[in-house]
Amino acid sequence: MSGETNLSTLLSSLNPILNKGEYVFINLTEPNPMALAHCICFFKEAEGSTYILNRSKADEFQFSYDFVAAWITLKVHSSLEAVGLTAVFSSELAKNHIGCNAVAGYYHDHIFVAIEDGNKAIEILQKIPKTTKS
To answer: What residue ranges are annotated as transmembrane (predicted)?
Structure first.
């Protein structure tokens, strides 16, 4: 199944959920099997590798981090080729002074916002189908 591409359908079916826990982004210049084993997302860049993991694991392994995030999953199965979804939700969050870091998985989009903005972000995302015109 390749996922939904129609923006109107995507927006009316977002179904955002706030995952339990606190999440952090760490950057390591050398591969780290412990970070990789416990991360929910990994991205390799020229400057180093970014791992997203539960804050408690980062603390356990004494990794340093600057940003503590809430993790929101949009339960709609969005296509990797869908156009406009990220623009809509990031714009709506920005209007409310909430920055976001988006990660696209094969089935769902995931949004990381500052931990203190998690509940407010959910409220905003739940209103998107009612407030946006696609």
So the answer is: none
For domain 7-129, the CATH architecture is: 2-Layer Sandwich (3.30)
Tokens found for residue 68: 């503590």
Extract the runs of DSSP E, i.e. beta strands, from the chain: 16-18, 23-28, 39-45, 48-54, 68-74, 101-104, 109-114
33's tokens: 């099997």
Confidence of residue 129 (pLDDT cuts 50, 70, 90): confident
Q: Is the pTM of this model over 0.85?
A: yes
User: Token pair of 16, please?
Assistant: 């955002």
d(CA 59, CA 25): 12
Q: What are phi and psi of 8, to 5 degrees?
A: -60, -45
